[in-house]
Specification:
Blueprint (H helix, E strand, L loop, with lengths): L4 E2 L2 E2 L5 E2 L9 E2 L5 E2 L1 H6 L4 E4 L10 E4 L24 H9 L7 H23 L3 H21 L3 H29 L11 H14 L5 E2 L5 E2 L2 H12 L12
Parallel strand pairs: 2-6
Antiparallel strand pairs: 1-5, 3-4, 6-7, 8-9
Helix pairs in contact: 4-5, 5-6
Keywords: Coiled coil
């Protein structure tokens, strides 16, 4: 009647839980996204999915669409606050910093700083590098267990579901700490852990630093990401490994 259509949904099917424990728990799909024809024509790949429930009985949902992103620069080194929460962090840094070398003075300091940075990159990859992957795996497991409980209640599945939920909350807290630091929205870490908001803030900060086009001295305009990258190298005379240019 209003010309609205139901946007397609990916992921879990149910959006609301009554919050009960055991066999009396029930689910329903009460939350949807309605779009008009103009939106459908402009964002043909748009979908929505339900996020994890927190304090509410309803799942928050996020609408997303495909986005092309190109980068030409390595990611900068960042100290992550969540490292300090790990029991092995300080002993690891002390061990790396105490590695003997033959230099003195500022050269010794520079070498130790560089060595610590390289070691922390590897340590972070081994310890925390699979945070998002672990969260996805736990979310998928919770979805499977939830579907099994919807079909038939079982105490064994119920225990597995609750244990998986606790483990997921631990990994989500780590991810919230990391994203909160990057987005510089630390006041939200203790509140609703909506990772989509953190990602949107991070993307906005990246958008502000993007060079999307270049105007040459002869009036030509370069709008392709590769062309802008090459144009910047030609302007500077020599390629720069730290140059970061992104295009639509």
């Amino acid at each position: 009647m209003c010309g609205l259509i139901d946007l397609s949904c990916s992921g879990q099917r149910m959006s609301c839980c009554n919050g009960h424990v055991g066999a009396s728990r029930s689910w329903a799909k009460l939350d949807r996204v309605l779009i008009n024809n103009s939106f459908s024509a402009r964002f043909q790949s748009a979908q929505y999915k339900y996020l994890n429930r927190k304090s509410s009985y309803h799942c928050p949902l996020v609408v997303y669409s495909d986005l092309l992103f190109t980068t030409y620069s390595p990611s900068p080194f960042r100290f992550l606050n969540m490292w300090c929460l790990h029991n092995d962090f300080l002993p690891f840094v002390k061990e790396v910093w105490s590695t003997p070398d033959q230099t003195t003075g500022l050269m010794k300091l520079a070498i130790r700083l560089k060595g610590t940075k390289v070691a922390l990159r590897a340590w972070n990859k081994n310890i925390f590098g699979r945070v998002e992957g672990n969260i996805r795996a736990l979310e998928e497991r919770m979805e499977v267990l939830e579907n099994q409980l919807q079909s038939e209640f079982s105490e064994e599945i119920e225990v597995d579901f609750l244990v998986t939920k606790i483990e997921l909350e631990l990994w989500e807290k780590r991810e919230a700490t990391r994203l909160g630091q990057i987005a510089k929205k630390n006041w939200l870490i203790e509140g609703d852990q909506n990772f989509t908001f953190f990602h949107s803030v991070i993307n906005q900060r990246c958008q502000k630093g993007m060079i999307k086009k270049m105007v040459l001295s002869d009036g030509r305009i370069l709008e392709n990401a590769k062309a802008v990258h090459n144009g910047a190298e030609n302007y500077c005379g020599t390629p720069s490994p730290r140059l970061g240019l992104d295009g639509d």
